[in-house]
Amino acid sequence: MSDFHLTTLAPRIAVPDAADGPLSSRTWPETAHPYRSAFVRDIGRIFHAKAFRRLAGKTQVFTRRTEESDHSRSRLTHTLEVAQIARTATATLGLNATLAEALALVHDIGHPPFGHAGEKALDTALRVHGLGFDHNLHALRIVTNFEERYAAFRGLNLTLAVREGIIKHSRDYPAANHPELSEYFLDEQPPLEAQIIDLADEIAYLAADFEDGLAAGVLELAQVIGDVPLFASFYADARKQFPAAESRLLTNEALKQVLNALVTDLMQEVARQVQAQGIETLDDLRRAPQRLAHLSEPMEAQRKQAKSLLYANLYLSPTLEAEHAHAEEVVQTLFTAWTENPELLPFDHQARVAEEGAPRAVADYIAGMTDTYIEQAWMSYRESLQK
């Protein structure tokens, strides 16, 4: 954009790459790598984690049962899009782009199958037992305990900065309610690298859900043009520039510009907030009264308007509502069956029952499943009842 202007942030606001810095520390001390920073190593560990690979088989919005195309996003492809946005935004602002990329890659690793519907169903099932499901807290358990790749320790032994970001990128956890998270500076703001992940996530799935919803025929182009001014203006510009192009290509052009406008606004607003509050160091940022990463008021209003259309016409559409009901039935049925009969769990998950109780052990097992795997488990369970 020709009128783009951005003041790069003060260098000391960024999380440093120093190998001996406190945010580069690990639970289990390790010798520094000769040519890879601590956060580059974290990226590699996340890429090679089984939980990361399973994201390819987990729902973003459309399940394999409903989608009409192999091109709809999975939880994995969404994660990669978030990583691209986060790395671009943080690098442009002069922040630690490598840390931001690591946080983006791991931010959804704790999601269960069936997207948000699966998470809601699992949380509802656990609340009967006085528990709950939180995908951020579950992600922390995955990277600190469940992943088994190293002889020296359980988990991935990620840096403190990445573990803090897993917990705090999208919400705040009161210290009084979560003593087990005391090492993650719960009374302080997270670094900007972590704060930006939440907005990168919002931006990525806003644009992607319009694309996937239109491609699947659940959303109507005329309705999106009529009800989403941000999209409509860019679509009109694309039609003037490419009058002979097909509507799907004009849609792509418009969504590309929507994405660009949102990311640009985010970066400019972060820089404006930092300057307005006199933030010069990471310590200053930690002590800020509220988070600094958000969109400007006019752009946030447009984002909310676009999101409202997605809720009314995509997320709550009859097509997806049927899938949400199916997800609830599958999760609730298997959770109840395995909680009442934990001997049906695989041996390694049975071992966790004695440590954490059947409800949590069962929830951990379900949360790790892909959509296909849990469907197969559900079918097998139903068949067993007919014998």
Helix and strand succession?
HHHHHHHHHHHHHHHHH
CATH domain fold name: Hypothetical protein af1432
Q: Which structural category fits the helices and strands?
A: mainly alpha
**How far do the termini sit from each other?**
66 Å
Please outline the helices and strands:
Layout: H1 38-47, H2 50-54, H3 75-93, H4 97-106, H5 115-127, H6 135-146, H7 160-168, H8 192-215, H9 221-227, H10 229-241, H11 247-276, H12 282-286, H13 297-315, H14 318-340, H15 347-356, H16 358-367, H17 371-385
Helix pairs in contact: 1-4, 3-4, 3-8, 3-11, 4-7, 4-8, 5-14, 6-7, 8-11, 8-13, 9-10, 10-11, 14-16, 14-17, 15-16
Which terms summarize this structure?
387 residues, mainly alpha, Hypothetical protein af1432, 17 helices, 60% helix, 0% strand, globular
Describe this structure in words.
The protein is an all-alpha fold and 387 residues long. The chain has a single domain, classed as Hypothetical protein af1432. 60% of the residues lie in helices and 0% in strands. It is built from 17 helices and no strands. The protein has helices at residues 38-47, 50-54, 75-93, 97-106, 115-127, 135-146, 160-168, 192-215, 221-227, 229-241, 247-276, 282-286, 297-315, 318-340, 347-356, 358-367, 371-385. Helix 1 (38-47) runs parallel beside helix 4, helix 3 (75-93) runs antiparallel to helix 4 and helix 3 (75-93) packs across helix 11 (247-276). The protein is globular and about 65 Å long. The relative contact order is 0.14.
